Amino acid sequence: MAAQSGCYESVTDFFANTDVFLTGGTGFLGKVLIEKLLRSCPDLGRIFVLMRNKRGKSIETRVNELVSCPLFDRLREENKSALNKVVPIFGDITQLRLGMYEEDIQRLSNVSVAFHLAASVRFDDPLRDAIKTNISSTQELFEILKTSAHKLRAVVHVSTAYSNPENRYVEEKLYPPKYDWKKLVQAVDRYEPETLDALMQKLSHNSPNTYTYTKGLAEQVCNDYSTELPLAIVRPSVVLFTIEEPVSGWVDNFNGPTGMLVSAGLGITRTAYLRPKNRINIIPVDVVVKTIILAAWKRGTIERACGPNHLPIYNSAVTYEQSLEYQEMLDRGKEYLYAVPFSRMIWVPRGYPTNWKMLYYFKLIFTMLLPCFLLDLLIRMFGHKPFLMKLQSRIYGSELSLRYFVRNEWEFETKQTNTLPTLLNETDRNVFGWYMPRILTAKYLENAYITIRRYLLKDPDETIPYAKRKLARMILIDRIIKIIACCITVVAIWRTQFAGSL
Asked: Which residues cross the membrane (predicted)?
């Protein structure tokens, strides 16, 4: 049911003439959120983005690079001046007070909405680092907002749908804490990192990694501060390419399935240890961004008068029926890999996942490790630095960290999330609502594939004819090698049998 027009405050009015504070703005999700706010809320004040100097680049240089990426091309055409509203604020989420200068903290006085997206998404972080990044940063941000953001109407904390992975059906509610987050934050300064890592299994109740464990505890931080701040939590599932805005298929990182498709397309990955019929819950990044924006809007308008301890939680995910089977996703990927191949592939994109562990390691050794080892030797002989074995090591490490998730399945309740667009009037629904197809295949993956080729691999469309010719040659060589191998095998068997009959 849509909100009544008599007391309705539109989403654009909610963000008009006020500032926004954002952590994690340089990440995949953060960039899309910034772009959507600037493009769809033209009267927005400033967007303060917390960032630090990195790789010798100042925050001013980094913010210029951020708004120069292809994601902002549409905004540049429609309203280029809006890009000037992005203001970098120096800070570091692992530090006290987020490492911010006091004068910068004072600049947050006109902030009405804060988005906390910053987090470490590495599954293998030491517990100490994960605590500082995912738990302590949340507390530090809330303490700053309490004292400085006097016009605050909403704070949205972005968690993960896998913050309580022991539950295979995840409801839109807060789950019991696995530990006292305050004690864990204090332990960071009391114990050596090695001690904390040794205690991880006992402290975490057998959570699969430090990421899900600390993200779950960060939700408890939100619960404790919900009496003082207008908080909401959004839990995305596996965030991937845009489905619609500002362009279809945009992605800027190799995380998760994206890395799997790229390494397969380059001919490096030939197998994976997973259950092919298992489903992966993919949610387009632009849908997540709209959920985050509407969660803030609802918390600051419709739920503004809610009492203490009000903490709405939104699972930004698709239904089980909308989720993708790994086998289907990989099959679709192969179609596009052959239709529009990468020009830098080192061998024919081919290979299959398996649920049989022995077969997986056999294929890993003989179709991935051994060929890469031999190619590295060849590369070294020509005076170049070998890199393939190192790359395979990274791919294998990534596969190990993801194994828990690809070998299990989850279902997510999304009632509160699905209700958000129904609260909007028609104008807002056209801008901030979303439609999800019954199954995320075909066009969604196809659009993403060509974008991966262009922007991640820096492989321009002009190289497609060359890549197709290269693939055709590789397929021919691959067949010749297999025929020769089969002939040698047959001859060897025949000679063995013939020698045995003499």
From this structure: 358-379, 476-494
